[in-house]
Amino acid sequence: MSAPTLPLDCAGVITPSDSSPAIVFENVAMSFGTNEVLRGVSFHLPRGETKAIFGVAGSGKSLILKLSLGLIRPDSGRIIVLGEDITHMREEDLFALRAKIGMVFQESALFDSLSVKENVAFRLMEEHGVYDDEIDRQVREVLRFVELEHTLDLDPSELSGGMRRRVAIARALITHPELLLYDSPTGGLDPVTSNTIIELIVKQRDVNHTSALLVTHRLQDAFTMATHQFDTKLNRMVALPKGQHCDVPMSFLILRDGKIIFDGDMQQLAHTQDEYIREYIS
Amino acid sequence: MELISPTELAKEKVFTVQNYIVFCLQALGNLFRKPLYVADMVMQADTVGVGSLPIVVLTGFFTGAVLALQTSNTLERFGSITLVGQLVSTSMVRELGPVLTSLMVAGRNSSGMASELGSMIVTEQIDAMRALGTDPMKKLVTPRVVATVFMLFFLTIISDLVGLVGGLAISKVLLGLDARQYWSNAWQILVFQDIFMGLIKPVIFGFIIATVGCFYGMNARGGTQGVGRATTQAMVAASVLILAVDLIVTRLLMATLSYR
């Protein structure tokens, strides 16, 4: 497989928006027994930006997503999500915050006892007070967004891997979250399906300007996201001309041995002198 | 396989018991917090109650029948064969009805709950539920506990009744006893303490079945192998706990109810 080429024509860097960052990690450490997975990790995700997280297997990429959602508590450090310190937040209070966050799990994690419609509508049904016809309308709308409206009454077991991933994205998007967390959304999928998923993520980023953390092993996916924009008129992702790549709100973060060894935009990544990173992206 | 020191093993067991107690308190506490998932409770009641009905009926019938058969020989030696109805009645209502029904339901549902919730854990469905803002303890555990306690109470009554019918079948067909006399003896021997003891036990055992099954399921780790382990452990733990608690509850009730 040929390595994706890095465009070197970027003239500027991403400018964080004026509002507070969507996610802030301050010196976060996390161990499982004697295995130190994260060692003093600090970074921030500006609002409206998508940050792709790379690293070898077991480097703590998925752990960062689970920490951001409060599913796991860090051993030390501080995590602020959408302006709220979640480090020591009670589970009951976290449920309210999670209403503003959508997560797409590595293996989709669809509820296999529920239909596609019930999976996507799960959050709305749990809110108690949303009328059935309103739920139906919103489910159809979000399934149309991922181009799976025809699967409404199917069970998750009847879907292909790519379709399951798109339903998981629809489930995460139904309440229009302010922050999205994608855990290897294209993992194990063929290139064509992967491209469809990436297009959906780019669509969400450029149409709704949602902040996102994206964990991936596939460098080409992240580079596609950094070099393309969603065209609402054509209703598809289009490649940006050279010189405009820095208009894309996209950055990269690379983990190694529990520490961040790179956090920056594509231009900085392309010009890095770090041997490990150069080898990683080549 | 790594060897664990006895101290570590003891600590691990105490820690598990502590976690189980906290788990039970959470499951009970959720009854007083909104939302209360009534639809899920009804669905679980159908799975636990209606689903377990055939095995409970069969177990009850054959237990009552074999009890009549086994005791008839001894009673005949003392010239008291007519007391078969009394013996089947007290044995079924006080002890065998609740315990055997609970063991059957534990075998079917405790393991079922452990495997279902365990599978949800290893496929990240429980994490997904938390991520979607729903408390899995409220949505999955509390409805199972309420449904099992409620349905085991009625399943035990059915089992007692079917057990008496089983005893009647043997008394009438094989022992040649009068059916009316059998029913009369079986009914008249029962006192309030018998009924109370026989109906308080399924409430306690139902709680054990559901909480043990859900506890092992929610703590399943290590993929499909972990789910299999949780399923087996849940069934064994629930069965042993039912028998041990039965002894304690029987002794306590006999002392407090001034049993004859």
Write a concise keyword list for the protein shown above:
heterodimer; A: 282 residues; alpha/beta; Rossmann fold; 2 domains; 6-stranded mixed β-sheet; 4-stranded antiparallel β-sheet; disordered N terminus; B: 260 residues; mainly alpha; 8 helices; 84% helix; elongated
Précis, in short:
The complex is a heterodimer of chains A (282) and B (260). With 282 residues, chain A is of the alpha/beta class.
Question: What is the topology?
Answer:
The complex is a heterodimer of chains A (282) and B (260).
Chain A: E1 23-32, E2 35-45, E3 50-54, H1 61-68, E4 76-81, E5 84-85, H2 91-98, E6 101-104, H3 116-126, H4 132-145, H5 161-173, E7 179-183, H6 191-208, E8 211-215, H7 219-227, E9 228-231, E10 236-239, E11 250-256, E12 259-264, H8 266-270, H9 275-281
Parallel strand pairs in A: 3-8, 3-11, 6-7, 7-8
Antiparallel strand pairs in A: 1-2, 1-4, 4-5, 9-10, 11-12
Helix pairs in contact in A: 3-4, 3-5, 4-5
Chain B: H1 6-29, H2 38-77, H3 84-122, H4 125-131, H5 136-173, H6 179-188, H7 192-218, H8 223-256
CATH superfamily of the largest domain in chain A: P-loop containing nucleotide triphosphate hydrolases
Number of alpha- plus pi-helical segments of chain B: 8
Q: Report on the biggest sheet of chain B.
A: none
Strand fraction of chain B equals under 5%
Give the helix proportion of chain B (percent range).
Answer: over 70%
The whole-angstrom Rg of chain B is 21 Å
CATH architecture of the largest domain in chain A: 3-Layer(aba) Sandwich
Structural class of chain A: alpha/beta
Which topology of the largest domain in chain A does CATH recognise? Rossmann fold
- Alpha-beta content class of chain B: mainly alpha
**Main sheet summary of chain A:** 6 strands, mixed
Query: First CA to last CA of chain A: what distance?
Result: 11 Å
